[in-house]
Inverse folding.
């Protein structure tokens, strides 16, 4: 996994530093879906909630758990998937990972059982940064940039994702694994 010399860009992972005290971003892994001079858009990959998609959207043909995508527009639904052109209007983030697409196509494929749980993930809200905000947070060391092209990001178990990515980031970050979530309880 590469970490040095990375710049924020589409497909980059943001790994929160271990003591970031924030409900949404504490020990989070964010996939940047978009980054340009106007700001950044991403989804938190490792924050599932105990709410099923069909509980939020009545009649939606999926009992998969929802994920918290971030603190912005939490009443909106966002989707990441590995299905590419099978879902029209999808946007490629990186090789094998797409976001968005036609919701009716997604419903149809779910009804026909042509989508497996590890191929799609639904998010409430998204993570957003205004112009230069993310760069400022990177300078403050709130985040480390990483890139993982080795596996499907949706294959990671969310509860272990932050630690598993830290493990492969190298010796520079290995101490993060032993840091307590709350240093006052150490």
């Amino acid at each position: 996994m590469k970490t040095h010399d990375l710049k924020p860009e589409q497909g980059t992972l943001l790994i929160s530093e271990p003591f970031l005290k924030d409900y949404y971003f504490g020990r989070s892994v964010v996939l940047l879906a978009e980054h340009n001079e106007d700001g950044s858009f991403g989804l938190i990959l490792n924050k599932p909630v105990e709410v099923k998609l069909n509980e939020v959207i009545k009649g939606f043909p999926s009992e998969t758990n929802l994920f918290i995508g971030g603190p912005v527009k939490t009443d909106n639904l966002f989707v990441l998937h590995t299905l590419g052109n099978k879902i029209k209007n999808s946007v490629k983030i990186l090789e094998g990972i797409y976001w968005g697409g036609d919701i009716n196509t997604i419903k149809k494929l779910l009804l026909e059982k042509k989508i497996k749980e590890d191929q799609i993930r639904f998010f409430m809200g998204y993570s957003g940064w205004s112009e230069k905000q993310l760069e400022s947070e990177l300078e403050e060391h709130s985040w480390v940039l990483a890139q993982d092209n080795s596996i499907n990001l949706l294959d990671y178990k969310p509860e272990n994702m932050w630690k598993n990515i830290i493990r492969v980031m190298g010796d520079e970050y290995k101490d993060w694994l032993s840091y307590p979530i709350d240093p006052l309880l150490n």
User: Anything to note?
Assistant: DSSP finds four helices and ten strands in the chain. The longest helix spans residues 158-168. Helices lie at 53-56, 103-111, 133-139, 158-168.
